[in-house]
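Team,

Forwarding the record for the chain on the shared tracking sheet. I've put the sequence and predicted structure together so nobody has to dig through attachments.
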Amino acid sequence: MMRQLPLIIFVALLGVGPLVLPEFHVTLLNYIGLYAIVAVGLVLLTGVGGLTSFGQAAFVGLGAYTTAWLTTTYGVSPWLTLLIGLVLTGIVALFLGFITLRMGGHYLPLGTIAWGISLYFLFGNVEFLGGHTGITGIPTVSLFGWELKSGREFYYLIWLVVLLAIVSIRNLLDSREGRAIRALKGGAVMAEAMGVNTPRAKIVIFLIAALLASISGWLYAHLQRFVNPTPFSITQGIEYLFMAVVGGVGHVWGAVLGAGLITILKQWLQDWLPQILGQSGNFEIIVFGIAMVLVLQKARDGLWPVILRWLPERSLKRDVPAAEALPKRAPQPAGTVLLDASEVTKRFGGLVANNNMSLSVKAGEVMALIGPNGAGKSTMFNCISAVNPATEGKIAFLGESTAPLVARDIASRGMSRTFQHVRLLGQMSVLENVAIGAHLRGNKGVLAAALRFDRAEEARLLAEAARQIERVGLKDHMFDAAGSLALGQQRIVEIARALASDPCLLLLDEPAAGLRYREKQALADLLRRLRAEGMGILLVEHDMDFVMGLADRVVVMEFGEKIAEGEPEEVQRDPKVLEAYLGGVE
């Protein structure tokens, strides 16, 4: 209750604001609310998803101009134009998203600048939209017979939308789809290997951010009852991003804080600076630039996390709801060939990392892939799991060629893996990290998550994640941040995450690295139990004692090629293996 007290006070103050504040302050709050709606979308898109956009002002313009033109030219109901504007914005966002979201690095923000400028000049140069003069005479909005004529009346509609946007985005992030979205920033390769469709997730958050901007534009048009291109320029798009970053780009409430700070400071600076400097000009931009540098240097996560430190400490959720077990995959009969790789070659330019590699893994066996550092073992893993597909050769999983498949398709067929370099989302709890592995075992979408209709499925996914965490012996760390664990424990978390997908073939890349003796024994016992259950395991490991006491068959690699294959005792006596590891038989 104490944790919710600041929110209750905030909502109460919002409710009484128009009743006690002067007209100027109500107007200021209206604009803060309009900007906050756009900034909330940017928190999802940029802060959580890691996709930088400078073009959100153009989507605001689409919503504003759609309702302005349709209501003034054809007399269409404003509520109908809201739906039409959302559809139009959605179509444009999907088109632009499919083009620009394929780009990475600095090309993505440059692409958003390009289409942001293009839409701005479209608004100003199309004759039926009024050119740079704009459109006047936009009608008022009526809500249940109540005509919202003044800013005071419109205020409640704006802030209702703000609160609904915040609640919806928070609900979304606390869900199966939300974990997939949070994995986009720094964990996309891992997420694909766990079955997440990352291109779709990018399009989804891009679309949500665009639709929120369009709603803000619709509200702006009917509040002002006049639109022209100026508020939808690329400069305003940069200012929206500035609001999100200053407030706290990873926090939805930071969007409100950032919008409030920037709007109020801009108003004050526009009044004070000309008086102080004795001349007029856009001096507030200089101050904002300096402020941005200071914020990025002193509070890179924005100001909202700084405020959170002063609020009452939140009691962390320490229990997992009881739920029905998820359906399990039908086990493969012992001895069934799960994986068959033949003549696999992987080239990186002129470097041949794997050359004519062949191996197979059967249900109910542990196959070890060993070799010196740089032998190409992890590259072979990436080829098998389609994280980095092979250049040549054939790889079949459950009798089906994986050549036309991507990593998430292979994951859906029952293959899961860990990574040589641990790929966890450090700020998320161990439970949430492991739940990403169960992504394909749920089907509730974005809308269901935003409206909280996914709670039953979410409970089952978290319960499954908890079971796998207990299975690998990390129950006491279930609610700890994954990044706070020791490296060896993080590798065990990766195994739990892979098991959460209910695989029939498990690929483990150096799972025992960083583990102590007893931890290695516990891991070996776990792998023996999995083998007894009929699971196939392909293992890369440098600890020969661990491998030779566990593996049924061993493949040895050197310089990207297979030099030996057989049972552990046989391989240990092979002269080529002794040469590779010890420099010779003697």
